[in-house]
Design goal:
The chain has 304 residues and is α+β, with helices and mostly antiparallel strands. The protein has helices spanning 2-35, 132-143, 171-183, 190-193, 209-212, 217-223, 244-264, 289-295; strands at residues 38-41, 50-56, 59-66, 70-77, 83-88, 97-103, 113-120, 126-130, 147-152, 161-166, 195-199, 231-236, 272-276, 297-303. The strands form 3 sheets. The protein has a 5-stranded mixed beta sheet. It is elongated, with a radius of gyration of 32 Å. 25% of the residues are buried. The model is unreliable at 1-9 and 20-36 (pLDDT under 50).
Length: 304
C-alpha cells in the first residue's frame, strides 16, 4: 500500500513540476515578445530634406537622407524608367526579406497600410532596388502625403524587426526640379547607342554610300550630351578572302577612313583610338555572300 502511495505522490510531484516549467516557458516567451524592439529609422521634421544631387541631360537623381541608416534615391536615366534605391552604411546579409509598404498619414481618419512590393536584400551598399511600378507608385504617394516604409521582420540576421521610412516633409519642394530634369532627359540610353557599325563592299576601303551618312548619327548625337565618354574605339575588319597581310592592311585603311569621318563630324581626336584586326575577328564565321558582307566592317564603340 505504501509503495502505491509513494508512486502517486511522485507522479503528482512530476506533474506539478511539469506545469511549473510550462508556466515559466510561457512567461519567458511573453517577456521575449514584450522586450522585442522595432528599430525605426526616419528623418525628423527638422532633418527631413529631399534634394537634387545629379542634374544632367542623361541622369536625374533626387536624394533623401535617412539619419543613422543611409538614404533613399529616386533616379531616372536617359531612355529608362523611374528607379528607387535604398542605400545604407550598415551591413546586411543577402536574401533578407523586406516588405515595401505605403502607410496613410496621421491626419487620415482611418489608418491603413498597402503592400507595394516584396523584396530581398542584395548584400551590398544598395540594399534593395524597387521595381519600376512600385517606385512610380511610391513617388505619387509621397506627393499625396503618404509614408513609404521598408519593413524588415525579425530574423536570425536581424534579431529585432526594423522599419526604414521615407519622410514626406519637403518632398514637394524638390519635386518640381526633379520633374524638370526628367523632361530634359535625352531620349536614348547609353546602352542603345554605344555600339555602331559601317560596312564595305568587297576589296573597298571606302564604306557603302548608303550607310556613310547615317551609320553613326545616333552615336554622335549622344556623344554631345554625355561627358563621361572617355574613349571612342574604332576597329577595322575584313573578310577572309585575300591574304592575311593584305586583309590586315585593308582593315587598317578602313579604320583610318572612319577615323577621318568621325574627326570631320567634330569628335575630339583625344577620344579616338584605332585598332584593326584583318580577318581574325569575323562577326559571322560562314562563307556565304551575306557572311562575307557582314565581316567587311568597321565597328565603333563608346566607352566610359
Amino acid at each position: 500500500m505504501r509503495i502505491w502511495t509513494d508512486k502517486i505522490t511522485n507522479n503528482t510531484y512530476l506533474i506539478k513540476m511539469l506545469k511549473f516549467f510550462l508556466f515559466l516557458f510561457a512567461v519567458s516567451g511573453m517577456l521575449t515578445e514584450a522586450l522585442a524592439i522595432e528599430r525605426r529609422y526616419i528623418a525628423s521634421l527638422e532633418e527631413s530634406l529631399w534634394e537634387m544631387t545629379v542634374t544632367t541631360p542623361i541622369y536625374c537623381e533626387m536624394t533623401h537622407v535617412i539619419p543613422n541608416f543611409g538614404k533613399a534615391v529616386f533616379s531616372r536615366a536617359a531612355g529608362r524608367k523611374l528607379q528607387l534605391r535604398l542605400i545604407t552604411q550598415q551591413r546586411f546579409a543577402k536574401g533578407v526579406a523586406v516588405e515595401f509598404l505605403s502607410e496613410s498619414p496621421d491626419w487620415k481618419p482611418i489608418g491603413s497600410k498597402f503592400s507595394l512590393a516584396n523584396l530581398q536584400t542584395s548584400g551590398g551598399e544598395t540594399i534593395v532596388e524597387v521595381p519600376e511600378s512600385a517606385a512610380r507608385f511610391a513617388y505619387l504617394e509621397l506627393h499625396d502625403g503618404f509614408h513609404q516604409g521598408f519593413y524588415f521582420p525579425e530574423s536570425k540576421n536581424l534579431y529585432d524587426s526594423m522599419v526604414v521610412m521615407m519622410s514626406t516633409v519637403r518632398f514637394r519642394s524638390a519635386e518640381p526640379d526633379f520633374e524638370q530634369c526628367v523632361r530634359g532627359l535625352y531620349l536614348e540610353n547609353f546602352e542603345e547607342v554605344k555600339f555602331a557599325r559601317i560596312h564595305f563592299d568587297h576589296d573597298e576601303e571606302f564604306p557603302r554610300i548608303d550607310e556613310e551618312d547615317h551609320a553613326f548619327t545616333r552615336m554622335l548625337d549622344y556623344l554631345m550630351v554625355d561627358p563621361s565618354i572617355r574613349e571612342v574605339v574604332i576597329s577595322g575588319h575584313a573578310d577572309h578572302t585575300g591574304s592575311l597581310c593584305y586583309n590586315d592592311s585593308l582593315s587598317a585603311r578602313r579604320a583610318w577612313y572612319v577615323y577621318d569621318l568621325l574627326l570631320g563630324q567634330g569628335v575630339d581626336p583625344k577620344l579616338l583610338r584605332v585598332d584593326f584586326f584583318g580577318e581574325r575577328k569575323p562577326l559571322r564565321p560562314g562563307k556565304s555572300v551575306s557572311d562575307l558582307a557582314a565581316n567587311r566592317r568597321v565597328s565603333v564603340e563608346l566607352r566610359r
